[in-house]
Design a protein that fits this description.
The complex is a heterodimer of chains A (321) and B (285).
Chain A lengths: L1 H13 L10 H40 L8 H9 L6 H28 L1 E14 L2 E12 L2 E12 L3 E12 L3 H13 L3 H28 L4 E2 L8 E5 L7 E10 L5 E10 L2 H12 L1 H12 L1 H11 L11
Antiparallel strand pairs in A: 1-2, 2-3, 3-4, 5-6, 6-7, 7-8
Helix pairs in contact in A: 3-4, 8-9
Chain B lengths: L1 H4 L3 H16 L4 H38 L15 H24 L4 E5 L4 E10 L2 E11 L5 E5 L7 H7 L6 H28 L4 E5 L5 E8 L3 E8 L10 E5 L9 H12 L2 H11 L4
Antiparallel strand pairs in B: 1-2, 2-3, 3-4, 5-6, 6-7, 7-8
Helix pairs in contact in B: 3-4, 6-8, 7-8
The chains are: A alpha+beta (321), B alpha+beta (285).
Chain lengths: 321, 285
């Protein structure tokens, strides 16, 4: 009976104008309470749905663009941004964050100094995060000496210690892409990220050695040596200051094997007029071969120096030792 | 109260009534339920507002990070406000954290200063074909002379020789490069052996050493001819063998082109891959 009554009143109450305080007061109150409870419950449901939606949006945000990691001072800063920090707490949050940013800057500087590789941009995006497995997409770019690189790969992480690189893509902005091409395709095929960077470092070190050597020769024999492509290029030009027709080019280049070994290749290309060769043919014509055998025994620097001294390029005024 | 008011005069009245009553009489079970729900509503509202703020922060950070190159996008942000300052710091923080992570991932030597800058700790990451393997650590004193004080590098890696060969005092990089090459070559050979055992169950490992610089395998060729294969990795800075020897009782076989092809495959490819190729050719069962 009570239940029927409740229902009836429920109907009455819902019709505006039909509401009279004609029932017993207790009953009425309970009724209104029920009404309120319903309203509240509906509100809760609505809010819960909203919260769920927001959670989802946050997750999607992580996947769509950059994934952020909120830990330590970053977590506190996020709380600050959400208005959860008050009064003096705010200053503490800011100074802590500032301190850590400075610390990170110093760390990065040290890594660049030791490694010689400068990473200038890294964007991460979470592709999949289910259970114990996490897949992230990395896009990293930077430079190593004068070489600009960009790598993109997927990193799968199962628990803490099993990390794998997949779908590696490498772009290298090199002046001499030929020497790298077969190595790069092998690296991409085998997802050999670490090997790529080891080789890149060795390669740029060798380039720096070459630059130093070229500069050294230019300073030591300024009238003979010129660097038409600048000190970073692979060509050095040797010529007698008064015999403009007789020129030797030293091509100092590298080849990268599929295993990542950087192999030195130096060639000597003589450019001597036909007529001159008649008088001179024996030593100058065979110079290229002789150069290679010298290279094997003396090494690049001493070989080049002996070429400069040996083929009579030096005017008498140049220092002899 | 926001929610209640939207439901009209009735709820408001009933609310007033409830309040008036609760002053006089004992609270009823339903009333405490109302209170409970109201608290829940409030909590949810707070949660929602927080999430909204969090989402907003995320979006702003995204924009800041993506405009690292293109700074014009930042213009619409309030320059002076405290929160925009915090936001900028957060963006920088996340950028730097990612850069450090990138350094680690690309196998950069990780350097940490110790003892108030008197020494350094270095980590060398190793990996083989996309799989990250062991990380090795070195602690070095830099004052007065550069000297390795502690490390966890396996004893069979010629650490001292490598340190002597590259002058530690002038350039630590050369030393680290050679060491890293040796370590990577070692873990690479070890990983190849592991992969070979997993992928080629029919191949029997007769002998191998801890440095994985020597490997004796036994596999079967068609017509049940057993072949003994010796792989010698003389160059310890490489993952591939420097010498391959195949041996079997059937002397005719050693001159066959198939045999020569197998030898060159074993010299050019990692052992597990060379065996896969040989299987495809039908050289190995």
């Amino acid at each position: 009976m009570k239940r029927g009554m409740k229902l009836l009143v429920g109907v009455l109450v819902r019709i505006p104008g039909l509401m009279f305080p004609c029932e017993e007061e207790e009953e009425m109150m309970r009724e209104e309470n029920t009404e309120e409870l319903e309203v509240l419950e509906a509100q809760i449901k609505h809010l819960q749905a909203e919260v769920k939606g927001l959670h989802q949006q946050l997750q999607e945000e992580d996947c769509r663009n950059i994934t952020f990691n909120f830990e330590g001072p970053m977590k506190e800063a996020l709380a600050f941004m959400c208005g959860l920090t008050e009064g003096e707490g705010k200053e503490v949050v800011v100074s802590k964050l500032e301190e850590e940013v400075e610390q990170l800057e110093r760390k990065i500087k040290l890594q660049i100094q030791i490694n010689g590789i400068s990473v200038t941009r890294c964007i991460t995006k979470t592709l999949d995060h289910s259970g114990r497995k996490e897949v992230q997409l990395f896009c990293i770019s930077g430079h190593c000496s004068g070489l600009d690189f960009q790598v993109e790969f997927k990193l799968s992480e199962v628990q803490e210690h099993q990390r794998t690189v997949n779908e590696l893509n490498v772009v290298l902005d090199s002046k001499d892409p030929q020497s790298f091409s077969s190595f790069l395709s092998r690296v991409e095929e085998n997802n050999n990220l670490l090997l790529f960077f080891r080789t890149l470092r060795t390669f740029s070190d060798r380039c720096a050695d070459r630059t130093r050597a070229f500069q050294h020769f230019q300073e030591k024999f300024p009238s003979v040596v010129s660097l038409p492509g600048g000190c970073r290029s692979e060509v050095m030009r040797l010529s007698h200051p008064e015999l403009s027709g007789c020129v030797f080019f030293v091509y100092w280049s590298f080849e990268v094997s599929t295993e990542g070994a950087v192999i030195l290749k130096i060639r000597l290309l003589p450019k001597i007029p036909e007529q001159a060769l008649q008088f001179y043919s024996q030593p100058a014509g065979g110079a290229a071969e002789a150069f290679q055998s010298l290279l094997r025994t003396l090494g690049p620097e001493a070989t080049i120096e002996s070429v400069i001294r040996g083929v009579g390029l030096l005017p008498d005024a140049e220092p002899s030792s | 109260m926001e929610g209640a008011s939207s439901n009209g005069v009735l709820s408001k009245l009933s609310l007033l009534e409830v309040e008036a009553r609760s002053r006089g009489s004992h609270p009823q079970p339903q009333q405490s339920r109302v209170k409970e729900l109201k608290a829940k509503v409030e909590a949810l509202k707070t949660k929602r507002d927080q999430l909204k703020a969090e989402l907003q922060t995320h979006k702003l950070l995204q924009r800041l990070r993506l405009s690292e190159v293109n700074h014009s996008e930042e213009e619409d942000m309030d320059e002076d406000s405290e929160s925009s300052r915090v936001l900028r710091l957060m963006a920088r923080h996340s950028e730097l954290t990612d850069l450090l992570r990138a350094h680690r991932l690309i196998g950069g030597y990780e350097v940490v200063k110790t003892h108030q800058g008197k020494g350094v700790c270095m980590s060398i990451a190793t990996g083989y074909e996309g799989v990250y393997l062991d990380t090795y650590n070195l602690e070095m004193d830099t004052n007065p002379k550069v000297r390795i004080s502690r490390h966890n590098i396996p004893p069979f890696i010629p650490l001292d020789t490598l340190a002597e060969q590259s002058d530690l005092q002038t350039g630590i990089r050369t030393f680290l490069d050679t060491l890293s090459q040796h370590l990577n070559a070692y873990v690479g050979r070890r990983q190849q052996l592991k992969l070979m055992k997993e992928q080629h169950k029919s191949v029997e490992v007769m002998e191998s050493n801890i440095l994985c610089s020597m490997l004796v395998l036994m596999f079967t060729m068609p017509e049940q001819v057993a072949v003994l294969c010796l792989l010698d990795y003389k160059d310890l800075s490489r993952c591939l063998p420097t010498q391959v020897k195949l041996d079997c009782e059937d002397e005719k076989l050693t001159d066959s082109p198939q045999w020569k092809k197998s030898c060159s495959l074993l010299l050019e490819l990692p052992v597990h891959r060379a065996l896969t190729a040989m299987k495809k050719m039908g050289t190995v069962v």
